[in-house]
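ARCHIVE RECORD
Type: protein–small molecule complex
Small molecule: flavin-adenine dinucleotide
Source of inputs: curated submission
Record status: active
Notes field left blank by submitter.
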Amino acid sequence: MSPFDYTRAGDVAEALRLSDRPAAAYLGGGTNLIDLMRETVAQPQRLVDVTGLAGDIAHTTDGGLMIGAAVKNTALAEHRAIRSRYPMLSRAILAGASAQIRNMATVGGNLLQRTRCAYFYDTDGSRCNKRSPGSGCDAVEGFNRGHAILGASAACVATHPSDMCVALAALDAVVHLDSRDGQRSLPFVNLHRLPGDHPEIDTVLEPGELITAIELPALPVAANSTYRKVRDRASYAFALISVAAALEVTEGRISAVRIALGGVAHRPWRAAKAEAILLGQPPSEAAFRDAAIAELADARPLSDNGFKVPLATRTLVAVLTDLAGEPA
Ligand SMILES: Cc1cc2nc3c(=O)[nH]c(=O)nc-3n(C[C@H](O)[C@H](O)[C@H](O)COP(=O)(O)OP(=O)(O)OC[C@H]3O[C@@H](n4cnc5c(N)ncnc54)[C@H](O)[C@@H]3O)c2cc1C
Ligand code: SF4
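STRUCTURE (tokenized, with ligand):
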């Protein structure tokens, strides 16, 4: 591990001032960043600890929730309003990592955790454009069972690892940011990038930009929602594929639907095509299957991960069928 200095920020202004150097990094729970530093994938010279900032969950005037970036994953998953009004988010968080890691991990850090592609972590000889731009990608023709089937590029086929982010993509969440240039907010679905020619850039954040909060809108459909994660073993495993979905049926027709997929792309994948097909339809297994097939029509599987297409299709159909109760 390279030498670094450590400072704990007392407020947002101090965090922004302390991060005013290219090799500074914000530190949440450290459950991803410290691993990356041990492997020398990340080599910040200064860590600015932001776990003392904005650690609460507050009701907004328009009926939503404002979640501070320093809120721990466990606290968010266990919050009464999250469990009752946004159950997919609680389930997604509890499907990730372990209880000990969730006790340490923060909302801000979860959003910016980096891919689990094994070649990305292997600094002893693997080629990886995300870690070392221009070096190549050993996953494209290597072991790519867990890699992307949608939105990938020749430069990178990695997936985004977070479970929580899949739910946030489905829930129309908004990310609040602060920087020395001022505050801004953006739709959560626009935070993470597809790899294109620059897989070394995961998000649209500017250098030094600080995540201060995530806002959940009042979203009645989210009360009937869930998250299902398919993985190789029941704990300590990242998603092969996952589905976050919410469904509302009024007078025999789908009146609201939100769907996002995990484990399929470089960012949480909002399933807008499937949603558009389903809206206004009577809920049925056939309609759910048609929507899933349409969403995955652009899938481009690699040598080892063709199974993800039928797996994602079946899981999406099963989740929507469960949410619909007794479809016609
Ligand atoms: C063994 C293991 C298993 C895991 N399994 C899963 C799993 O199944 N599903 C899953 O979703 N996750 C899993 N994780 C990942 C875990 O959820 C993340 O490591 C965690 O959420 C990161 O949060 P953190 O606060 O520790 O972030 P840190 O490690 O502190 O930081 C991560 C990144 O976020 C940046 N950052 C932190 N806070 C801010 C902020 N406020 N503004 C801007 N940048 C910020 C840091 O600079 C860093 O780049 C696993 C991790 C481990 C070690
Ligand atoms: S898939 Fe992306 S992260 Fe993995 S080796 Fe290729 S460039 Fe690196």
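CURATOR ANNOTATION: DSSP finds twelve helices and twelve strands in the chain.
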